[in-house]
Amino acid sequence: MGVKSDGSYGVDSSLFYSFPVTVQSPAAGDAPHRPRIVAGLQLDSDTMAHIAQTTRRLRFELDQALAIDDLMPPLVFDDVTSAESMPAATHPTSTST
After folding, report:
1. Could you tell me the domains of the chain?
2. Please, what's the largest Cα pairwise distance for the chain?
3. Digit-coded pLDDT (tens) for 18-29
4. N or C: which end of the chain has fewer CB within 10 A?
5. CA angle in degrees (0–180, nearest 5) for 79-85-90
6. Which of 70, 74, 10, 1 is nearest to 34 (CA)?
7. What is the pLDDT of residue 5?
């Protein structure tokens, strides 16, 4: 199941990754069912190498996405307080042509 990493198996904690998980029924008053990463599995060196390679690729892709986001100008909505104050051409319910 794809879940946010907690650093298990060497996967960067800023990534979502497909981990083996368990889901247990919550005790009374607890939060709803939440997946928990299975800890301590013995993985062979080929599997660990694959996880490391995939983690590097995902981290690279995340860094690229964040770099693009840094280049984008911030969206400013200060002058638009509601949909009614939007010009007709940009209002989502506008019928003007």
Report:
1. 2-85 (3.90.110.10)
2. 64
3. 999 998 877 777
4. C
5. 90
6. 1
7. 94
Three-state secondary structure readout of the chain = CEEECCCHHHCCCCCEEECCEEECCCCCCCCCCCEEECCCCCCCHHHHHHHHHHHHHHHHHHHHHHHHHHHCCCCCCCCCCCHHHCCCCCCCCCCCC
State residue 75 phi and psi, 5-degree precision. -80, 130
Other CB atoms within 10 A of residue 71 CB: 6
What's the whole-model pTM score?
Answer: 0.61
pLDDT 10s digits, 37-96: 999 999 999 999 999 999 999 999 988 888 886 666 665 555 555 455 555 554 455 455
Round to whole Å and give the CA distance between 3 and 29.
23
Contact (Cβ atoms closer than 8 angstroms) between residue 11 and residue 51: yes
